[in-house]
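> call design_seq(struct)
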């Protein structure tokens, strides 16, 4: 069985939204990376994205300027799946969330890789363990990243029931080596940890909006001025410890909160925005109006602020309360 020291080459399959950032992270961690995508325009866009992101990392002091070209050179693009996975010790699948596309890709992988290669999926909505060929299950895990993957520290890791714990441990050690915060989940559940928490928050957010209690700006300001920065220090459950678990229990007993009814239905506020074609930054308007805003500069400002906040978060993670 492989150990962390045996992992030298990583294949990243998919070069769309998540692939380039994931490939960059592994390359910064010292791994040789091969990337595959079936689309030439996607491939060229990924190359440009990688080069620009590495320059940004150098500007932010995350990597040395003289290392940019060396790190970029660790990432090679291949035209076929077979070329990409040849000699790979670890495979990271990041293709579109489409069951048929994943079934077709994993059918190829099953015929190409030895049984000691760790195969990981970044799937966010599908139960990959129900999709892959049965022969892959003993080597199958999930590494669920968040966008933008080169910046967001969290990766949630869960293994198939048939895979050994050592495969999940290796994946988490690799992620830690690459500067990520890996969280192990004991078993698979759709949505993992953070997406499920966010969806619960979204229920309440849209209940407040749909029923006219406040506007989007008020929700964002209240969140940023209270539990979000507090969570950087205490998380959610340690916060309960500090507040007193009797108080948390009393909140349930006293029914101080009532779950919104019809919480699984599409919220009216969201439905209206989507119907109007107001999809957020990519269309120039969503909850906020971005008309006349240089989106490239806006995203660069976002990234700079994310660098700052995650540096502070890492400081607290390294020295927890």
């Amino acid at each position: 069985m492989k150990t962390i020291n045996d992992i030298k080459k990583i294949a990243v399959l998919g070069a769309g939204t998540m692939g380039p950032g994931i490939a960059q992270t592994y390359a910064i961690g010292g791994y040789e990376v091969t990337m595959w995508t079936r689309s030439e325009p996607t491939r060229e866009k990924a190359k440009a994205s990688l080069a620009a992101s590495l320059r940004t990392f150098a500007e932010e002091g995350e990597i040395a300027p003289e290392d940019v070209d060396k790190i970029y050179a660790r990432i090679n693009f291949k035209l076929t799946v077979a070329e990409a996975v040849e000699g790979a010790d670890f495979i990271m699948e990041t293709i579109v969330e489409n069951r048929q596309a994943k079934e077709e890709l994993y059918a190829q992988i099953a015929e190409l890789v030895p049984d000691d290669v760790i195969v990981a999926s970044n799937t966010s909505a599908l139960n990959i363990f129900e999709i892959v060929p049965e022969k892959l299950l003993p080597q199958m895990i999930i590494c669920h990243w968040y966008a933008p993957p080169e910046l967001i520290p969290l990766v949630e890791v869960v293994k198939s029931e048939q895979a050994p714990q050592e495969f999940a441990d290796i994946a988490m050690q690799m992620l830690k080596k690459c500067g990520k915060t890996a969280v192990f989940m004991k078993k698979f559940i759709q949505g993992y940890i953070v997406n499920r928490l966010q969806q619960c928050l979204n229920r309440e957010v849209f209940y407040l909006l749909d029923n006219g209690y406040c506007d989007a700006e008020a929700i964002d300001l209240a969140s940023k001025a209270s539990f979000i920065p507090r969570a950087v220090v205490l998380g959610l459950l340690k916060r309960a410890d500090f507040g007193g678990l009797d108080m948390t229990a009393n909140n349930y007993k006293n029914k101080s909160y009532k779950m919104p009814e019809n919480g699984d239905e599409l919220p009216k506020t969201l439905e209206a925005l989507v119907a109007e074609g107001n999809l957020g930054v990519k269309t120039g308007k969503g909850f906020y109006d971005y008309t006349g805003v240089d989106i490239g500069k806006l995203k660069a400002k976002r990234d700079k602020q994310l660098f700052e906040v995650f540096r502070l978060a890492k400081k607290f993670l390294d020295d927890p309360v």
